[in-house]
């Protein structure tokens, strides 16, 4: 179901939420977090709702989609409230705050948050370079950006590194989680952390291979050789120790990778390309500081 509110206030919307809870139209319990998705245009709202709804299947939450653009005065508020069986244990509030001053967004949102529940602020498209200083970032324990949406992702990562605060993370980091798991297992199997060379083959314009290379540099203490390839993200990672080569290779459109190890036959393993909501769901599982991400990000400076 959907209800529309014209020229309204946060107090009016909060009162309606309380009424719907009393009527059992909204679940009184079960939400594990508040998720604020910040977008800059109405064209981005539908995709933001779909993305948050997919993540809320694992993490029931109150979703607030805030449409925010640069304006000096607040002349009114338009809102939409989505709820019902199709939303499961979650509900979605869309706030058209385009006419509101950015510095007032926190006071707009706070009355609508589920009480005693962690707050996550997510920028699915354009994001500030200092998320913790944004009004909706200051009230969150977790702040999620996506450097892949930036026109200059590597410069954006450097800006994120310079402004990093505990709780910050980026979806391009979650995009390489499966690769990191396989590589960690490969290093354990090799029974050495001393490699002569590490070779990463991937898209030079994509931040995920770049962050993976920085992680390998951090963990193995070796400079990384990056080879450009016309692929979407990553094609392969090879760890070279003398004549021994340990490699993970995945064709661009495949969800299966090949493990190549000295003295063993090639092994196929499942390595699907992660969808955006997969990385988002992973980040929502960890609301504390991601210390490893902060160390890898620091190498981007």
UniProtKB/TrEMBL annotation:
Residues 166-297 form the Glucose-6-phosphate dehydrogenase assembly protein OpcA C-terminal domain. It comes from the Bacteria. Residues 54-161 form the Glucose-6-phosphate dehydrogenase assembly protein OpcA N-terminal domain. Pfam families: OpcA_G6PD_assem, OpcA_G6PD_C. This is Putative opcA protein. It comes from Gleimia coleocanis DSM 15436.
């Amino acid at each position: 179901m959907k209800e529309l509110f014209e020229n309204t206030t946060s107090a009016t919307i909060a009162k309606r939420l309380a009424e719907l809870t009393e009527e059992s139209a909204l679940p009184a319990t079960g939400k594990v977090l508040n998720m604020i998705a910040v977008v800059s245009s109405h064209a981005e709202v539908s995709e933001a709702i779909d993305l948050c709804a997919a993540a809320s299947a694992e993490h029931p939450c109150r979703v607030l989609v805030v449409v925010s653009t640069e304006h000096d005065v607040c002349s009114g508020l338009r809102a939409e409230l989505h709820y019902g069986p199709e939303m499961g244990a979650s509900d979605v509030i869309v706030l058209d705050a385009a006419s509101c001053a950015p510095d007032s967004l926190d006071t707009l949102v706070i009355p609508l948050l589920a009480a005693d529940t962690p707050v996550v602020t997510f920028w699915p498209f354009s994001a500030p370079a200092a998320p913790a200083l944004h009004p909706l970032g200051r009230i969150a324990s977790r702040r999620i950006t996506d450097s892949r949406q930036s026109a200059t992702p590597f410069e954006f990562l450097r800006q994120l590194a310079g402004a990093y605060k505990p709780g910050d993370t980026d979806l391009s980091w979650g995009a390489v989680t499966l690769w990191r798991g396989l590589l960690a297992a490969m290093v354990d199997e090799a029974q050495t952390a001393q490699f002569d060379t590490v070779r990463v083959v991937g898209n030079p314009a994509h931040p995920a291979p770049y962050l993976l290379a920085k992680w390998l540099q951090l963990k193995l203490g070796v400079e990384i050789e990056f080879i450009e390839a016309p692929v979407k993200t990553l094609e392969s990672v090879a760890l070279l120790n003398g004549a021994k080569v340990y490699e993970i290779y995945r064709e661009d459109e495949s969800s299966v990778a090949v493990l190549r190890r000295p003295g063993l036959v090639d092994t196929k393993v499942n390595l699907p390309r992660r969808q955006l909501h997969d990385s988002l769901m992973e980040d929502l599982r960890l609301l504390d500081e991601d210390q490893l991400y902060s160390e890898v990000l620091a190498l981007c400076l």
